[in-house]
Amino acid sequence: MKKVLAQICFILLIAYMFPLMVVMALIIFTLRTVFGLERVAIDGKGKYVFREETFVALDVTELGSVSFKQQGKSWFSIDPLPGGSRLNIHGSPGSAYAWDGCSPKFLILGLAMGTPDGAVNPKTGKPITYYASMAHDVLYQFRKQLKGTVTRKQADRVFLELLRKDGFELAEVYYRAVRLFGWTYWPPFSKNSTPKT
Asked: Residue 12 sits in which domain range?
């Protein structure tokens, strides 16, 4: 009797789940084809990968006249400009800089879920938050090497500035989110101490 009941439950579960799986597959197909998600360069770990054989030069006023260069291979540098700075993020087809766009993100059935990165920007062919999230993640990731020359607030303001430049309508909402939750990714430390990563 228990075996028959278990088989009936299994058949009912499959009968219930099959239509949901078909609907999910149709939604994923629609998102990828109609909204162009297949054009977004995401690797198998749910991260964007900057593989272009070039660098992105992002002019920002929020950093003031900060200058930063690393010795050896560097993913980025900051050059002072009159009235601001230029954040240079270097790409490479071999070992490229990778980040997860606007955090948090996770993959379900091959579809990136979490904080939306916005519609594809027709000027760049990338999500509208692509460059803002790239710059923000670089500043957060390399905060130890920056040794306090860039504060968390400045990094968040760079994010806001670049979102506004790209015309993202939810720029203020995303900025408020990084101001509220960004501290979890930016532990406090002094210029002479090593941060906990």
From this structure: 1-34
Q: Which DSSP helix (H) or strand (E) runs through 36?
A: none
189 in a domain, yes or no? no
Nearest to 136 by CA among 112, 162, 104: 162
pLDDT per position as a tens digit, 44-96: 455 677 666 556 778 888 887 777 776 666 678 888 888 888 888 877 666 66
180, two tokens: 């509220």
> For residue 76, what are its two tokens?
């980025």
Contacts of 118 (CB under 8 A, 6+ apart): 127, 128, 129, 168, 170
Tokens standing for 150?
């860039």
Regarding pTM above 0.85, the answer is no
